[in-house]
Every structure is written in C-alpha cells, then in structure tokens.
C-alpha cells in the first residue's frame, strides 16, 4: 500500500456529499454557489475547479444547484442512502431501488 | 477535491475562508422601503413598492434568485377565484376560506381579489402560466382557448382534507360546474424572473445578509420602525438600513422543536434559513404578535421520515391511485378530479384500512399505481405537477436517472411502515404580527406579508400579500420623513451580534440549537400545564443566561447561524409565554392544557396577542373576526387599486 499521510480528522458530517461534482464537465463557474440558499458550497481556491462542499449538513435538498447548472452533467444529485426511493415493476412484481452510485 | 478534508490531504491545511472578513466594517443604506426577506412575498413586495415609485432595498439571507420555500418552484397557484375560468365569486370564496377559525381573513380576502392579477403580472415578467407549447392537450382541466390548466385541487371545497370530496356548492357556483379556482403553473420559472424584475426596477438587492433587528424611533420599544440592522453571512459586515417603511417577509421557522440540525434538512418544505427571525425582531421592537401558542406536529421530512414528495401519496401526486402490495385498490383519495383533491382518507376510512392491514386484507407496503393512469394525466402529474413543485424536480429527475418509468413502475408509499411522528416534533404553527387592512403591524412603519402574517405557507398567498404590502408600505413612505436613529440601539445590537466571535471556545451554534429544541420538546409540546410551561420559561432563561454567553463562532457563516439561534430562543420564549397566557385547550390551535381541559370554551374563542412593553410581556385578546366584513373592509381600503400593472 502506497504511503499516505493519515490526518486526525473528526467524523465526516452526515450527509457528507449531497451532490457529486464531475470535474471533467464542471468549469468552476460557481453558479451553484450562488443559487444555494444555505451556502452548502464555497468557491474552490483553484479557479476553474468545482466548488468545495463545506456545509453538506445544511443542505435542504431543494436541488436548485443541479437544476440551474449552466453545464448540465457537472453535478449529480446524490441522495443519502436512507432517503433513496423504492419502486416496483408492475409486470414482473420485482422491487427496485434508486441504486445509483 | 470537492470536500474540505480533501484539501487537508492535498495541501496539509484546510481551505482559507473564501470571502473577505469585514467584522469591523459597516455599511449604511438609506431607502424609502426596506423589504426583509427575499422569498416570494419579499420579491413581490419589492416589485410592487418600486412600481409605486419608492426606492427599495431588498435584504435576503440566501441569494434572491432561488431563496425561500418557493424559490425552487411552485405547481399550483391557489385560490385565484378572480381568474377568467373561475365559476365562483371571489368574495364568497374568501368568506368560505375564512370560516376556518384562527385564519387570517384579511390575507384570504386579498388573495382572492388580487391573486389572478398577480399571476398575470408573473406572466408579464417571464413566468410561465399556460401550456403555450401544447404539451398537455387533452388533460382534464386544460382550457383550449386560454391554455390555462385548472388544477384538480379545491374543485369542490376549500380543503385538501377528507372533506374536500364533499361538494359544497357556493351560491355563486352554477350547478354541475367545478370551482376552477386553482391553476397549474410552471413555477420553476418564477423566482429567477422575480429577481430579474427587481433588478430592472432598480431595487437594491442585498443578498447573503441576515436582518438581525429592527430600529425604532429613538430606540424606543413600540416606536415607529425606521430601519433595521443586518449581518452579512459571508463577510461578517454589519449593515445599517434606514427606511421610512419596512416589510417583514421572513415566513416562520422549521426547526425550533427539532434537535438534529443535520437530518432536519431533508426536504421539510423549508430550509435552515427559516428561523423565525421576523417574529423575533418584531416582538423585540414591541409589535403585537398572535397565534404564537399554536404548534403543529411535523408529519414529514425531518430525516427520520422518507423524503417528502419522494413517495407516492405525497403532495402533488394528483390522480395517482394507491394500491396495496398485491395490486388491490385502496380506498385512499387520489388528490384528483375524482375526490376534489383530497389528500387523506377520513378517520372512518383510515380505520378500515388499518383493520384491513391487521387482518391481512391489505398487504404493505402500498404503492402509487402510475401505470394505471391515462397517459396524459400521468404525464401532467409527473412532469408538470411534480416537475414544477418546489423541491420535487430533483426527485423526479433522480428517479428517472435511476430507471424509474411511471408508465411501468409503481412508486412506493411509506405510510405506516415509517411510523408516526412523535408529538414532540413540531413547528410553530404560522404565528406572527397582528395586521390591519394595510397589512401594517401595531407599529407604524412596519408591514408584513406571506407566511409571516400569521398565515399558512402558500406560494400565491405570499405573492398576492407581498404585492399588497409593498404597495401600502410605499404609500406610507411617501407621507413620512426619515426617523431618528438611536446610536445606542445600534451599539447594543452590534454587541449582541458579534459576541460569539469574541470567544474561541465554549459551545457552537448546533449545540445551542439542540439545547433550545430540547427545552421546547420537554416543556412546550404535548403535556402542558402552568407548572410545565413555567419550567420551560426557566429552562430558556437558563439557556439565555448561561449558555448564550458560551456561544462561539469561527467564521461569518457560523456567526450568522449563531444569531439565528438567538432568534429561535426568542421565538421559543414567545411560544411558551403565549401558551401560558391561554388557559384553555383548543383543537384548532393544537394547544392542550392538562389544567384547562375544556376544548375551545366560548370566552377563549379569541386571538391571543402578545407583545413587549418596557421589556415586560403583555397579553391581550382580539375577536376572531376582528377585520369585520371582508368585502367591505377590502373595498374601503383599496379604492385606488389599479389592477394589473400597466406601467413600464
């Protein structure tokens, strides 16, 4: 295993990542930083990079950051595991779930 | 590299605060009309005041583009009986709405008279209110000529409860016709259009600023409101607004009784920014508030329930039949054309369902049978109602990405299997400042709009009353001069706001929040007696004297959250004091006193008012219909109402 510095960090907040940024699409325009009414994000110190998720525990899951993103595909909503939906195929009766990873 | 700890691993340090720190700076802004809160009510108040020629400053904790409960969207424009397709008289509809005890009749009357005009103005500035692309031709309720889409809500009665089904024909409603008072709208287009219009009209917008207190003439409690102080949640800068009239539009709170500051965020209709600031600052300034003893149990969200709007049967799942796990149709209303938009079964039907579950007649879990619906109705529900509702678009989009297809799949319903809410999970139930026919509070210079004016949260109500309050505030501002600001009042407020950054240890805002919520749960919920309520006051006082002085904040954001806690603390004190001052139980108020068990005794079928005078709590009573005749009252105060805006 490659040597990696281990820091003494507090537990990660729950939820920790209400969204997933896709660095290959996001150009760091920070529109999502502006539309978020609770300031979940701050701009990335490095220009052109996706914002930093600073206050994930304050997200109210309104979705505006994803809905209003001017470069669709930059952000994916990431529902916390316990909030994921269940549904059922009517024809087969198979129970399905939002299993996006 | 999206999480802050990624930076620790990469750079060996946390990212530096990205905004300039300006704790020691202040800005002064002079304006005719100050609007506090930039949600739906606030934006409309700002637009309407600016259209009257007033200079306007709009102050918003988030960013006006999507802030407030209605920021993400809206699917129904409720109670617009003046719309061209309506089959009822607006005044009669307002009367029927106002039969509900402890409602705000003034607001209802304004909504019924001016809601349609407001919606027309929404369209003028870029909001979509019609099926202009003919996407829903053939859907029930769609009018071919106007392309307006009538909603199945309230088609028979002003209710979404079990009684929504009971056709109650209004005298003005022709036999055999539905009311047509609610209109389906494309509400995701609204908020950005409102912000754009504010800008176009020259409204000065101060985003990311929390208003912390109201300034009164010479700093006197009960004096004319002549401005406000604010705190920038990114920079920590102090703001002083001097105004001739102010409109409060900060809605209510959604976390006073919830311990958990993290999980509570899961889609509870309201974001963390709603912390009762408006009621708290109005109370401290000396305004009389009412309905502060009413609380409601939170049945949804909270993180301990499924994501609201995420399960079949939740709001806006219109016309979706509910079936059991074996596909058997349940006697559950569909929120649709068949049942007048009823959302919940009657107690008798609910008992039948519960017995059916116990006997194995109905198998859990239940499902929403989208595939059973006609294609056009299914699409209207999934794409239009759910796609345009406040926080729902991101839910339906996520489900589709994960493979959900409403033509093939049944969406799970979480009734029963997720359990009931304990009665200690509450929210304050829509209390706020007492208003007159101008939506003016008991303080000169202070107006209120939307949920903040002891009303339910409703997008179109917020819009119509915001537009009205802005108009009245602008008219008042034309008549008065600038006030005499007290330097002492500003000094005291500055000391209060900045105290948490003077300390480097103690307790953080989350711990204080949980402490306040715990005291409210113990002493302000299900089991109320004079003794219990007095323990509540003592508990909150102890928090104020011992724990507030321990509060510390590391940055402007946490400082703002800390000051929000202080709003919640004041709000809690108002709620407990009001609960003490009503020695009677009331079903409508969800206020049950063990020591006064008689339900709604006649002498207490009154509004209870509460205010501060020289720092002392004073309470009083007001008749339930203190506004008099609704139609006459409205007309007497609006002879100059010009209807839909015709200006530039």
Question: What does the model show?
Answer:
The complex is a heterodimer of chains A (101) and B (648). By secondary structure, chain A is mainly beta. Chain A has one domain (19-97): Alpha-Beta Plaits (2-Layer Sandwich). Chain A contains two helices and six strands. Chain A has a two-stranded antiparallel ribbon with strand order 1-4. The longest helix of chain A is centred in the N-terminal third of the chain and has 5 residues, at 31-35. Chain B has three domains: 29-75 and 185-298 and 421-627, 3-Layer(bba) Sandwich (FAD/NAD(P)-binding domain), CATH 3.50.50.60; 76-184, no CATH class; 322-412, no CATH class. In chain B, helix 8 packs across helix 9 (393-401). Chain B is globular and about 65 Å long. Chain B starts with a helix and ends in an 11-residue tail after the last helix. Strand 5 of chain A pairs antiparallel with strand 14 (409-412) of chain B.
Please state the second-level CATH architecture of the largest domain in chain B: 3-Layer(bba) Sandwich
Helix count of chain B, per DSSP? Answer: 15
Could you please say which CATH topology of the largest domain in chain B applies here? FAD/NAD(P)-binding domain
Question: Termini separation of chain B (Å)?
Answer: 47 Å
How many strands, what sense, and barrel or not for the largest sheet of chain B? 7 strands, mixed
Taken together, the total number of domains of chain B comes to 3
How many strand segments of chain B? Answer: 19
> Which quaternary structure do these chains form?
heterodimer
Poorly predicted ranges of chain A: none
- What is the architecture of chain A at the second tier of CATH? 2-Layer Sandwich
The tally of structural domains of chain A comes to 1
Estimate the strand proportion of chain A. Answer: 15-25%
Strand content of chain B: 5-15%
The helix/strand series of chain A, from N terminus to C terminus, equals EHEEHEEE
Termini separation of chain A comes to 25 Å
